[in-house]
Amino acid sequence: MTAQEVRLCGLLLHEHFGEVVEKVGTHLLRSGAQNLRTIIHETGLSVDLVKKSLMVLVQHGACLFSSGRKGPGSPTEYRSGCDRILRILRYPRYIYTAKTLYGDTGELVVEELLQRGHMTMSGTVKTVADRLTQNMEEGRSMDYSEVSSAFSKLVETHFLQRCPKLAGAGTADTSAIPPTPESFPDCYKVPHMTLVGRGKRQLAAEDGEDQRNAKRQKMDSENSESVPGIYWQVNFERFHLHFRDQAIISAVANKLDQTSSEIVRTMLRMSEVTTSPAATCTKPLSANEIFRSLPASYNIPRPILDQYLTLLVDDPMEFVGKAGESGGGMYVVNLHRALANLARATLESVVQERFGSRSARIFRLLLRKRHLEQKQVEDFAMIPAKEAKDMLYTLLSQNLVQLQEIPKTPDYAPSRTFYLYTVNQLPTARMLLQNCYKTVANLIERRLFESKESKRLLEKSQRIEAILASLQASGAEPEQLTEVEEMITAPEKQQLDALKLHINKLDSAENQVDETIFLLESYVNSTATSTG
Amino acid sequence: MAARGRSRRTLSFSVDSVGINRGESLPPTLQQPTPVFPVMEQKPLPLTGGEEAEYLLALKQDFRGAMRSLPCFIQPAAALRDVERYSDKYHSSEHTDGLMDWTPDWQRFPRELRIHARKPARDGVSVARSDAQSAQKKKKKKVREKEEVLIKLETLQKKEEQQSEEDDDDDNTEQKKKQEDDDADGDEEYDEEEFEEVILYVTCDGSNQSVWTGSGLTEGSVLQETDYIMSYFDNGEDFGGDSDDNMDEAIY
């Protein structure tokens, strides 16, 4: 829990849950596991506010509670983790992915679950059907069965999962580690439940149908809620696997060509269910299987497929590896190595954009050759000595390059020691990840500052929009509308447009930095699991 | 390292291997922190635009806006201003409506997090509970409350004469204690400590009825138990706060 992570989590909590939850959340992040009394005492908030904030945090999975460390009688302790709160940055990406895979219905289901934290299936289906009905034309409404089928599809592909049952929330919990959702065998099973009904429009035009629906809804709601407390949440890990696969496929498409990326996509699709999330590489697939599973639009002959596979194996990026000769050649996708290469490319591009292409050349050289002396750097990079020295020192002062001493004698006498320059990929990636968190926090703060500066102007424009909307709804003449519109003067309108542009840019920049965060985080986590 | 070399001209490390030649001088030492916004030699790349980026942006802003209106967005109790005003009594309940909309499943939360919401002292009705487990209790309450509305109307008339001074102070815990003692409902669980420290949530009778019974009561006068709409209680302190930039329109 670094300082930058805590700062960013605080800003995210403030924006999405209000400042009370922010205070409680940052206090928990900084101080570790605490019980209720300590939290109340140290944050100085009222009891009810603290209780409500804790409930909100638990509801959204940001805080876990367990019985105290001193034994069964001690008060429950609450602890919070940065990871879950930092996911909030990625919510738009999750919703967009659901939309591309399962359409508008899937998009709204995921959005509802993200907004509420945990929800029952029936609750989600009802809310989503109502929302979809709002946007449909008059007279049509959304059937529950369609929404339920989208929900079930999301659960089958593991994008949604059941919340782990908390063993006796009021009683003592003997296990120290809270159970993960995966430890329950029913994690991905949709309960057999029929939800009959249609979405309700808020302003009901047809009273008769609505009354009938309302009656049926009441009956069904009693049926469905008899299933005791099965709550669903979004499975972030599955989304992350999806993003990782997408990153690999687009990297292959950029480096090689479209057909190779299709081959890799087919291989990844075939190994979706057989590969565990922490696996280093997918299960070996034979060239025959790949040939059979290629999409119908890509009818390439078999020898061409073999050539493509050989090309992929020989590529220095090592996305695909050969694992054997049976079945026409067994091929695997090297997931961890691909992630490492993607992270390395990110580091290189960071150095290039910040310090120029010659410094980037030195950086790449050091990554490849591991340890080099000052003179060797100058020779290999073909850069004159003075400039190479300058660049190396700049990189060294930014901590992107490290100095390694190799003594010739046991007393580290400077005249008899080798000084080698080196780049360690993992610590550098971690450092850049912290820089990314700091960047996003700065972007958010700047955006809040800009909105605060122009708060009065924003409020005025909101009021005028509300007046316009109400006038239009009540059917006013165009002169009245133009009169109201003219209440905002031209310079104010310019100011508003500039403000909107800045805020959009800052928001968009946050989204983009989050993509880098995802890559670096996946890389760091993959090394942790492989070594640990 | 530099201190030891002060008396002699040589430095502690060999100059050749690190690459500093004899003739060159070291760069000047830094005497103050680096500037907050240093000049960048390379300008950063522009953001990737495109349809996907714009859609993601719209999703993000919509999500933020939607979260503000959900019950999980908790506003702190509004700070009291320097002088109490009559309109505070009617304004303070406006913000707390969203809090009661969310009835969590208490089996998933530790028992100590349960909040027992109190009704304001003006009503003679029993204390409302945010306990969602007991659906049967809810139904009993519905019936009970309808009867008690009638009783309440009578007691209100009596109480208004007695409590004319205490009406303006919603945070009066003594009033609440008195009301607790009068209360016939014996099933309630109290925490001794939270009883003393809790701040009243002013949830009015009107809003609770709309939650429990589902009847479509209109906002405004019923919510605040007055005969006037809420803009009647605007005390004129917000007037004139708009921008004075346009000086060609005279303000009367």
UniProtKB/TrEMBL annotation, chain A:
<feature type="domain" description="RNA polymerase III Rpc82 C -terminal">
    <location>
        <begin position="150"/>
        <end position="342"/>
    </location>
</feature>
<dbReference type="Pfam" id="PF08221">
    <property type="entry name" value="HTH_9"/>
</dbReference>
<dbReference type="InterPro" id="IPR013197">
    <property type="entry name" value="RNA_pol_III_RPC82-rel_HTH"/>
</dbReference>
<dbReference type="InterPro" id="IPR039748">
    <property type="entry name" value="RPC3"/>
</dbReference>
<feature type="domain" description="RNA polymerase III subunit RPC82-related helix-turn-helix">
    <location>
        <begin position="8"/>
        <end position="66"/>
    </location>
</feature>
<dbReference type="Pfam" id="PF20912">
    <property type="entry name" value="RPC3_helical"/>
</dbReference>
<dbReference type="InterPro" id="IPR008806">
    <property type="entry name" value="RNA_pol_III_Rpc82_C"/>
</dbReference>
<dbReference type="InterPro" id="IPR036388">
    <property type="entry name" value="WH-like_DNA-bd_sf"/>
</dbReference>
<dbReference type="InterPro" id="IPR055207">
    <property type="entry name" value="POLR3C_WHD"/>
</dbReference>
<keyword id="KW-0539">Nucleus</keyword>
<comment type="similarity">
    <text>Belongs to the eukaryotic RPC3/POLR3C RNA polymerase subunit family.</text>
</comment>
<feature type="region of interest" description="Disordered">
    <location>
        <begin position="202"/>
        <end position="222"/>
    </location>
</feature>
<dbReference type="GO" id="GO:0003697">
    <property type="term" value="F:single-stranded DNA binding"/>
</dbReference>
<feature type="domain" description="DNA-directed RNA polymerase III subunit RPC3 winged-helix">
    <location>
        <begin position="347"/>
        <end position="423"/>
    </location>
</feature>
<dbReference type="GO" id="GO:0005666">
    <property type="term" value="C:RNA polymerase III complex"/>
</dbReference>
<keyword id="KW-0804">Transcription</keyword>
<feature type="compositionally biased region" description="Basic and acidic residues">
    <location>
        <begin position="210"/>
        <end position="221"/>
    </location>
</feature>
<comment type="function">
    <text>DNA-dependent RNA polymerase catalyzes the transcription of DNA into RNA using the four ribonucleoside triphosphates as substrates. Specific core component of RNA polymerase III which synthesizes small RNAs, such as 5S rRNA and tRNAs.</text>
</comment>
<keyword id="KW-0240">DNA-directed RNA polymerase</keyword>
<dbReference type="GO" id="GO:0006351">
    <property type="term" value="P:DNA-templated transcription"/>
</dbReference>
<comment type="subunit">
    <text>Component of the RNA polymerase III (Pol III) complex consisting of 17 subunits.</text>
</comment>
<dbReference type="Pfam" id="PF22536">
    <property type="entry name" value="WHD_POLR3C"/>
</dbReference>
UniProtKB/TrEMBL annotation, chain B:
<comment type="similarity">
    <text>Belongs to the eukaryotic RPC7 RNA polymerase subunit family.</text>
</comment>
<feature type="compositionally biased region" description="Acidic residues">
    <location>
        <begin position="163"/>
        <end position="172"/>
    </location>
</feature>
<dbReference type="InterPro" id="IPR024661">
    <property type="entry name" value="RNA_pol_III_Rpc31"/>
</dbReference>
<protein>
    <recommendedName>
        <fullName>DNA-directed RNA polymerase III subunit</fullName>
    </recommendedName>
</protein>
<keyword id="KW-0539">Nucleus</keyword>
<dbReference type="GO" id="GO:0005666">
    <property type="term" value="C:RNA polymerase III complex"/>
</dbReference>
<feature type="compositionally biased region" description="Acidic residues">
    <location>
        <begin position="181"/>
        <end position="193"/>
    </location>
</feature>
<feature type="region of interest" description="Disordered">
    <location>
        <begin position="120"/>
        <end position="193"/>
    </location>
</feature>
<feature type="compositionally biased region" description="Basic and acidic residues">
    <location>
        <begin position="144"/>
        <end position="162"/>
    </location>
</feature>
<dbReference type="GO" id="GO:0006383">
    <property type="term" value="P:transcription by RNA polymerase III"/>
</dbReference>
<dbReference type="Pfam" id="PF11705">
    <property type="entry name" value="RNA_pol_3_Rpc31"/>
</dbReference>
